[in-house]
Structures are given as structure tokens and as C-alpha cells.
Write a structure and sequence with these properties.
With 307 residues, the chain is an alpha/beta fold. The protein is 27% helix and 31% strand.
């Protein structure tokens, strides 16, 4: 349905997006995951029509959207700061888009009531949005984005200002709502847990390019680069030298010799980076690892040990 083709954009004469291409299928939730400054929010603005790319196209069902203004694209956008109207009630905020489309008051009230029920705010329609908690305000912003049945909805770090427990709760609710409505979505975040919980497909954006894509399971199991492995905190990355090229591949590192089942071809003496998973190490009979423990931190059901 949505297709981005070779999108380029610069900021202050520096490249920000460098040939970004991907698609979003009907009913699919795609998460754009990356660090601050990677171009995620700019990409959303280009899709929404709030900015124009310097090169490339945004297409909907094959149609180039460049001549279509933002308000005619039929896309919803949810921001981190909610962007609610403080002088309007909850129901009036949600109904705003419907009024712009010419809905009657009676039709709009019925539609808004259904949407508020979906986001668990059925009893708060008459409240001022300034009296709501952060989580409740974000639900209002979500209802306002979905009430017009957009062709696509986009989320720009929508839970970034909330505490961890509330983020986890709203992530679960958002997942349910997107599945129930079937509206395709693009979700921008720097939080790996949010991306892996919500996304049917995850795209890692780094220095203006998509460096890894796939299901959450695929991205986690095969990050594809040192940067991605470190960004995902997938394990320890060690630099070593190849001592034997294959069957098994042997690598000498600062903590000892490792034997790997590696699918790549390597030459003896070649320098490589090795991702060591926390649960992926098995000691052979004569194996030995050495190092000086620098720090130990409790983490969930175990400990992180720094060497």
C-alpha cells in the first residue's frame, strides 16, 4: 500500500536520509528503530507531506503523493507531546477531524463515543484534556488520530515522555487497537522493547540508511553489523584474529580462543568482530577464558559482568 523509493534528505548541508526504501502492507505495523538524529522523525514528516524529499518518491498504491498536500493524504499522526487543544474537552478534541470532514454533530458524537470506548476513556468525554494524566492524554491523541479511519497512522515516539510501567501498559493497548482496526501503521521509536512488542516488522535506521530489517525475531538473531548488535545490546562484541578458517572457525580474542560455527569464508590472520550471546557460549573440555572483572550489575534473572 505505502511505498518509499530512494528517499534522500539533507539537513544543514549534511545528508540525513540516504536512499531509504521500504513498504508497508495492508494491516501491517512497521517499527522504525534508531538512535536520536538518525532521521526517523524527518522520514515521518516526508510521508505525511509536511516536508518534501530532495530525491525519491512516496507512493500509495502506486500513486506518487508528491502533488498531494498533507491534509488530503488521509494519514493520521500521533506525536510525543500529544498536540491536543487545551481549550477543548476530550470529546471535542477527538471530534475535531470529523468536524473538518463535515460530519454532523449527531454522527460525530456516536463515532467519538465508539472511539473513546476503544481507548478506555468512555467516561471522560466531557473532561478538559488539561485535567488528564499523561497516559490519558496520549489515549486521547490516539483516538483523535484513528477516529477518521485513516489509510495509515504514524506514531512519532508517542510514549517517550511516560514512565516505564505506563509505557508497557500503553504498548499492549496500542498493539491490541492496531490489530483490531487493521489500520497499517509506522511506529518510530528509539526503544527496542517498544519496537519488538509492536512491530510485525522492524527496520533499523542508522546514519540515514536502513541497515537491518525483518521480523523482531530475525533482527534479534541476525543484527548484521557491529553497530546493530551494540545498539540492540544483543551480547558482547569482541575483536579477534582468525586462527583457522572453517569447520570450526577459530578466533583468538583478548579473553581466549573461541570456536565458531560461522557461515562466512575467512582467511587466517584476518581481523573479525564476534558477537558473543549471553546464552550462546559453551566451554569445551580444555577451553579457557580469562579476564579481569570490572563491574557486576544485577539484571532481571541474572547478572551483567563487565570485563
Amino acid at each position: 500500500m505505502l511505498e518509499l523509493v530512494d528517499i534522500h534528505k539533507s539537513y544543514e548541508n549534511q545528508p540525513l536520509l540516504r536512499g531509504v526504501s521500504f513498504s508497508v502492507a495492508s494491516g501491517e505495523t512497521v517499527c522504525l528503530l534508531g538512535s536520536s538524529g538518525s532521521g526517523k522523525s524527518t522520514l515521518l514528516r516526508i510521508i505525511a507531506g509536511l516536508e518534501a524529499p530532495e530525491q525519491g518518491q512516496v507512493r500509495w498504491e502506486g500513486e506518487d503523493l508528491s502533488p498531494i498536500p498533507a491534509h488530503q493524504r488521509g494519514f493520521g499522526l500521533v506525536f510525543q507531546d500529544y498536540a491536543l487543544f487545551p481549550h477543548l474537552t476530550v470529546a471535542e478534541n477527538v471530534a475535531f477531524g470529523l468536524k473538518m470532514q463535515g460530519w454532523s454533530n449527531v454522527e460525530a458524537e456516536l463515532r467519538v463515543a465508539d472511539e473513546l470506548k476503544m481507548v478506555n476513556l468512555a467516561d471522560l468525554g466531557g473532561r478538559s484534556v488539561t485535567d488528564l494524566s499523561g497516559g490519558e492524554q496520549q489515549r486521547v491523541a490516539l483516538a483523535r488520530a484513528l477516529v477518521t479511519s485513516p489509510r495509515l497512522v504514524m506514531f512519532d515516539e508517542p510514549l517517550g515522555a511516560l514512565d516505564r510501567s505506563l509505557r508497557e501498559q500503553l504498548t499492549g493497548e496500542l498493539r491490541r487497537i492496531l490489530r483490531e482496526t487493521g489500520i497499517p501503521a509506522i511506529y518510530v521509536t528509539h526503544d527496542q522493547e517498544e519496537a519488538f512488542s509492536l512491530g510485525q516488522r522492524v527496520l533499523l535506521l542508522h546514519e540515514g540508511q536502513i541497515v537491518c530489517s525483518g521480523t523482531p525475531e530475525q533482527v534479534w538473531s541476525d543484527p548484521g553489523s557491529v553497530w546493530a548488535a551494540r545498539f540492540l545490546n544483543a551480547g558482547n562484541v569482541l575483536t579477534g584474529l582468525i586462527k583457522a578458517g572453517s569447520h570450526p572457525t577459530k578466533v583468538e580474542t583478548s579473553i581466549g580462543s573461541l570456536e565458531l560455527d560461522c557461515r562466512h569464508a575467512h582467511s587466517v590472520g584476518e581481523s573479525v568482530d564476534v558477537l558473543v550471546r549471553r546464552r550462546g557460549v559453551r566451554q569445551v573440555e580444555d577451553g579457557e577464558l580469562s579476564g579481569v572483572v570490572a563491574d557486576v550489575v544485577f539484571w532481571q534473572d541474572g547478572y551483567k559482568v563487565s570485563l
